[in-house]
Amino acid sequence: MTLLQIEGLGISFGGLRAVNDVGFSAKPGEVVSVIGPNGAGKTTLFNMISGVYLPNTGRVLLDGQDVTRFESHRLARKGLTRTFQNLQIFQDMTVLENVIVGFHLAERGHLLADILSLPSTKRRAREVRTKAMDLLKRVRLDKAADQVAGNLSYGSLKRLEIVRALAMEPRVLLLDEPAAGCNAVETEEIDSFIAELAASGIAILLVEHDMKMVMRISNHIVVLDHGEKIAEGSPEEVSKNPEVISAYLGAEAGQDTPSVEREVANADG
Ligand SMILES: Nc1ncnc2c1ncn2[C@@H]1O[C@H](COP(=O)(O)OP(=O)(O)OP(=O)(O)O)[C@@H](O)[C@H]1O
User: Fold this and answer.
1) How far is the CA of 251 from the centre of ligand 1 (A)?
2) Model ipTM?
3) What is the pTM of this model?
């Protein structure tokens, strides 16, 4: 059963066609990764899917409903949430407070009850706290709940950001470079957490430069180059695709992008 369907998405910035006619789909429990050399259009594609940019062409269907024109907060309430490449954590708040903010973003409808300080508000605050602590336990951050977020290691902050997105109870979760800046141990932690989330039935869309991680955890990979989808398939299919290899090798000559073939060989070894 398809949960997220992307059809012919495209957008231009001035004269530049940043993304052109890109489509793919994701089912519950699937990890779908979008890869491609620097500037290929991955983040722009994510921005269109998550309501940050309005595409010039194409559609985004969530559970069969056309949500193309929905803004991010409305999409989040429909079950599609994202994290950003750069951390969006409130560094001065505690770890727990950061997650609680995520819950409040998910339920703005209770504002009047909050203002009137109804008994239901206190009960809900307790429920939210319990749920937030449960989420923190899942990423072993519960012991750090009362610490100021700014004191956490980078890998912990990355996990906190994912947890905060989970407060919205997404069915589709877009992760933009969740392992960026993480060391090998932190990357593996994030890696197994993502696999766990997928196993719980969430469809994960991933943009990630760490090719070993992509090859390890993806069920399906979509490859972009210069805004076009040049290939898609299983990690094995994609890593053997000559067009994909040449896109990466071409990029490697001018930029610091790893060759998929070599990265797959390393990941195997
Ligand atoms: N808001 C914008 N205005 C103008 N051009 C943009 C904008 N956002 C992206 N672009 C351009 O669109 C193209 C695709 O950029 P995008 O950031 O989506 O690529 P990417 O694959 O995510 O790259 P990276 O791997 O480096 O993050 C680039 O040429 C970029 O300069």
Assistant:
1) 15
2) 0.96
3) 0.86
